[in-house]
Amino acid sequence: MVSFWSIWSTTYVFTVVYHYLDMAGSFLVTLYEYSPLFYISVVSLCFLVTAAMVLGWFGFDVPVILRSSEDTDFLPSPEKQMVQVTNPFSLEMGSGRASVANGVQLKPCCLEPCVLSCFWGCEVGALQEALQGGARLSTPQHFQEALRHRYLHCQSFDVSSADQEEHHTHIPADQGITDLGPLPRQRYPLVAVLTLAGQEARDTYNFVSSVSVVHVPDEKYKMSARILFQYLLTSQGSMYDLKPLFMSANSMGDSDPTELPGAPEDEEEASRVSSSVLEEEEEDDWSEGRGRDCVVCQNASVNRVLLPCRHACVCNSCACRFQHCPICRAFILESFALTLPPPQL
Prior knowledge:
26% of the residues lie in helices and 23% in strands. It contains seven helices and 15 strands.
């Protein structure tokens, strides 16, 4: 009995809908014959809106633009599962002017004793073959063999864990090299490689070497010196592309770039904003990384990194309320946390 009434009610509904649609079609034909185009357009628009409302009321899918804002479901971006790792390598550009003719200052900062190897004029193809070969590149000798000596000059430095000084590397003047030729070039100006010096340290860390591609200006290409790419190589032969995070200007928390939850990120020091009108107690709160850091609520500290734009600008609560980055308006595909909450006992 229930099945009969269900079938009868469904048939009746579709009959009524078909009847009204037939009447509306006949009415539109009549308007097309006797009415101006303006009235036909108005009536057609009303018909489409009414049909969409009826279909939506019966559960059929309709375009989002015809739905009310309350009926639209908001889907927050998924959270990327990250793993906390330790990066023992760090390399920054040193002070002073840099050029191919006069050399460049490099400032390594490592957690363990390392060897800094500088390969001047390394061929682009040779470096790509070495990185993608899958071999374990854990010593300077391994890199020299993988590059097949396809570089102009190599220079090495011993770096201790407490070493904070800059190292000057250059091409010998007797080679007479002042530029690397016209663009596009087949050689990188400088490839700086950091490798762990001791075997015990290689067994301790998952990352055994760091590769930095450095641009050094010369007479034909005067763009300022900077690090173009950075890669981390594991003991299994895998490679990770290091990319910096873009911290918001009012994110005052200090974070260790060698220990981040997730894929290794060699993060540049976040920009800091200070004001002389702040009281001493308030300045202490800012220096400790507490307080108004989030660019949205200005009430909680920044703890979410948005991908793929890599902007770290929102807190955990605000991250789930946006589908676009508040800074660059890029669509958020996923996000991850800078610091993980303590495990609950």
